[in-house]
Amino acid sequence: MNQLPRRQFLLGTGAAALALTTAAGCGTGSTRAPAADAASPRQGGRLRAVFAGGGNETLDPHLTNLFVDAARAKALFDKLADYGPDLAAVPRLAESWEPDATLRTWTVKLRRAAFHDGRPVTADDVLYSYRRIADPERAFRARASLEPIDLAASRALDPATVAFRLKRPYAEFPNVLAAFGAYIVPGGTEDFTAPVGSGPFRFTSFTPGRSLLLARNPDHWEGAPHLDELELLVAAEESARVSALLGGQADYAHELNPATARAHQGKGRIEVVRLRNSAMQGFVMKTDRPPFDDERVRRAFFLIADRRELVDGALSGAGEIGNDLFGKGCRYYPADLPQRTQDLEGARALLRAAGAGNLKVTLDTSPVAAGFVEAAGIFKEQAARAGVTVEVRVGNKDTYWKDVLDGGTFASYRSGAMPIESHLSQRLLSTSTTNATHWKRPDFDELYARAQSTADPAARTALYERMQRRLHDGGGFLVWGFADWIVATAPRVRGVAPDAPANTLDWARFDRLWLA
Amino acid sequence: MTSLRSWTGRRLALGLGQAAAVPALVFVLTEALPGDAADALAGDDPDPRRIAVLRAAMHLDRPARQRFLDWAGGLLRGDLGTSLVSGRPVTRYLADGLAPTLLLAALALALLVPLSLLLGVLAAGREGGPLDRAIGSATLAVYAVPEFALGVLLVSVVALRLGWLPPTAVGGVREQPAVLVLPVLVLVARPLCSISRLVRAGMLAALDAPHVRQARRHGLSEARIRWTHALPNALAPAAQQLARTCDWLLCGVVVVEALFVVPGLGTVLLDAVAARDVPVVQGLAVVFGLFTVVLNLAADLLARRLAPRSEAAA
Hints:
The complex is a heterodimer.
Chain A: H1 3-29, H2 34-39, E1 46-51, H3 67-76, E2 78-79, E3 81-83, E4 89-91, E5 94-99, E6 105-110, H4 123-134, H5 143-146, E7 155-158, E8 161-165, H6 173-177, E9 183-184, E10 201-207, E11 211-216, E12 229-234, H7 238-246, E13 252-254, H8 258-264, E14 271-285, H9 295-304, H10 307-314, E15 319-321, H11 344-353, E16 360-365, H12 372-385, E17 389-394, H13 400-406, E18 410-416, H14 420-427, H15 442-452, H16 457-474, E19 477-489, E20 493-494, E21 514-515
Parallel strand pairs in A: 1-12, 1-13, 16-17, 16-18
Antiparallel strand pairs in A: 2-9, 3-4, 5-6, 6-8, 7-8, 10-11, 11-12, 13-19, 14-18, 14-19, 15-19, 20-21
Helix pairs in contact in A: 9-11, 10-12, 15-16
Chain B: H1 2-32, H2 37-42, H3 48-57, H4 64-76, H5 90-125, H6 130-143, H7 147-161, H8 181-207, H9 210-217, H10 222-260, H11 265-274, H12 278-306
Helix pairs in contact in B: 1-12, 5-6, 5-8, 5-10, 5-11, 5-12, 6-8, 7-8, 7-10, 8-10, 9-10, 10-11, 10-12, 11-12
Family (chain B): Belongs to the binding-protein-dependent transport system permease family.
Keywords (chain B): Cell membrane, Membrane, Transmembrane, Transmembrane helix, Transport
Pfam families (chain B): BPD_transp_1
């Protein structure tokens, strides 16, 4: 209900003026009061949303890889849970979850929901979907997230109850239910040419590479969407997405450049929404090889970074500074740790102590993400002021992530939003599959395992804080910022949540939007 | 006539050889790119075990030579294979992408041919005259602007500021044909300049040729001399440039399609290369190769007909 005031606050005076004109326009045409008209959703219409493309071009929700895939999948399907604004799991198809005393068996109760063909969503559908994702013969992205579940031992207790048996105690198990790509499909489904899901929109037609047309699902368990139709379009070039929006060919454009946003913000033609804390920006240092196997060198690099300059230069100011920890704004983030600032003298002293006086480092980067190459250039200048020579090496963008996982010593890095626990387990344990800093510390693994067998939230929070302090003191992630994710809409689009990082529940949530 | 037929046969055989060489070369080049489809698909989640499973599922773990031979064997049976990424047949990609690209190219050519002839003949009307100089400097100026810049300029001025035309083809070409105007303009702009200048140069040379001077002595009207005697001879070099332009249209189309979101072959190519989707890239190489060969053959034939004495072709 406080959508309008919040929008005004966010977008400043230009948008406020715009909101007034729109409200006045509605007021003349209808008998309702302008304020009520702007605040209460209107039913009907088709919203056209345009995303960057190049996805897998199938509608199999388990193949979800890019943002456009995720937007398609979440319109058609539901997960058992999804991430709230602080990346804590919130129930979706699951009504509730309850662990046993050992945190090794979790009982999940399903809410009453139905697929688009009328069949109810049952425990068997859930187990089928998860077993499909976990199939070792396939390579679904969510498979790594479901790894803690012993699916052979998990059972349907009744049609609305699943008992998940885990391989080890796992206090953050609800994060698995919300994992990227862990959608529930009807049991036995392999063909997704005309997909049947339980999501807020039903399938109408799909032209790969161009458009997916969906229609409102009036029977969605959470209530029907306001829109009659949703069309998800694809345009690889950012300039084309902006043009389509400005030219009235689309109502919602995803993923804009900060420069574009600044050019159009407050001008009234489009409304810019900045989704805070959507993408961690940083550098990864390989902690298992020189020079970064010496903790003093890593700490020196922490002190070299002028984070404000990096955010202003590489992100055109569209973001916030980081404190060498992932997950700003997320549950368990230690916000009270002091903010690290540039200290070139301190950096020089640390490097001298480490015997790395005339250090030369190669920084791998690539135009794979906005701001990468720029940030590398800025850091090179900053390092020079501390007597460190950084050579920037620009790599191939199509294979960049694989190249820097094990290769090189120092590389540009970014990450979308995920729970802090997922970041720790996927990237910072000896067993992690994408450990780009090669941070392999048995005692750190042990702290993680202890946190996962700790039921008491306060005790667990304390354990997470210990782990994060350790990373903050001398880990391999130099996190200098958090980029806004920028979307823009036509002025008549209402209901865009401004506080949902990309990939969370309220991001690209077209069932909550309406056209004024 | 027999000489023409044997010449055509030789050109055809050469063309087929070229068309076969293109996919082989493209295969080698695609293989030489760093990373494969499994790496590209894994993206920012490069779990090595997952990449290994992806690679096995795509049969990329077999030697490159074997994969190429399998593909070539399929091609001989008329089977272009399936996309590594989506599993859809490559022919579907080609069929979906061909229509918008051909439409763009056809419209561009339909505009390009008469306009460049007209401009060339007009400019050649009085060499060094004000009209010639105006056309000369205008074509030179437009030629200097790359497609991307011209496209952005047209979108921001004509579409977004003046609102005369839709800025992109988002939402489909068939539903709103006006979306094609700007892409066609961008495609036509530079070839129009180069071909009209060639026509002008050809016209000036032809007007100075002995047979035209002879016609003039016989008192034929200047217009008749210009359009029926000089122009056909001036066309031979222009026709070959036009064939090259058709090739170029297929390339230029990559930029224009991306800029205006036309879901044609250029878009398919960009996506396929980024995904290292080798079968789709190969399928496109076959199509582009055949196009090039057929167009050049047609241009050579035309040039021989227009100016048999010049032997410009071969």
